[in-house]
Specification:
about 210 residues; mainly alpha; 8 helices; about 10% strand; elongated
Length: about 210
């Protein structure tokens, strides 16, 4: 489960794949520069993730229909990661709960650049995003995106979340909108550079092929 804000640009994925095959150094540099570009947003998003459970019910254990454990809420916004439990501690419930917190912290809020080809699954298209910032973890969608409910319990949860943290999205989109203009301006320059470097890589490749 992932809460995410992303940007789609036609033709850009082809350029990224070109760099990946012809100039891997340039491709890695693109990802590094993008992550540096959105680091203020990522830091802001991390600060918006509650350190503790946002409401008392999030302290309870919950696995929908026997699937992946969504709750208890591991929290975020820490200045340092929670400690990873030892193998011996994993033999006890407290150690296993600590491992859940550590794993969720590891996922955290992060930026990505994707050159993967979009894939169609019925009415759903996967891998459309080129640039994005995502908050991964089972609690991400529950806290960040919850806005509609089909049960009275769900409606009460959303009411509490909205009163305390505002409407969805409470983390990723909120952090993006506060820095949107600056991010868009710097992205335009990065996109121009990607297209230029991909064109140059193709030209170099043709030249080497002639030789």
């Amino acid at each position: 489960m992932t809460a995410e804000v992303s940007l789609e640009v036609a033709g850009l994925k082809d350029a990224l794949r070109t760099l990946q095959s012809m100039d891997k150094v340039a491709r890695r540099r693109i990802t590094q520069d993008y992550k540096q570009l959105v680091q203020p947003m990522v830091s802001d998003a991390r600060s918006l993730v509650p350190t503790d459970a946002p409401m008392s019910g999030f302290n309870r254990s919950w696995s929908p229909r026997g699937g992946e454990a969504v709750l208890p809420f591991a929290g975020g916004g820490r200045s340092r990661p929670p400690r990873r439990p030892t193998k011996r501690e994993m033999n006890f419930p407290g150690g296993r709960r600590q491992m859940v917190q550590w794993m969720k912290w590891q996922q955290g809020v992060s930026a990505f650049v994707s050159g993967k080809k979009p894939k169609q699954f019925g009415d759903y298209t996967k891998n459309l995003a080129v640039f994005g910032v995502q908050w991964q973890g089972s609690a991400a969608v529950l806290f960040d995106q919850s806005r509609r409910a089909s049960t009275p319990q769900g409606a009460r949860m959303i009411s509490v979340l909205q009163s305390r943290f505002g409407p969805a999205s409470r983390v990723v989109w909120k952090a993006y909108t506060s820095a949107e203009l600056e991010i868009q301006r710097e992205l335009e320059q990065l996109i121009k550079r990607i297209m230029s470097e991909a064109t140059e890589a193709i030209a170099r490749n043709k030249e080497l092929g002639i030789r």
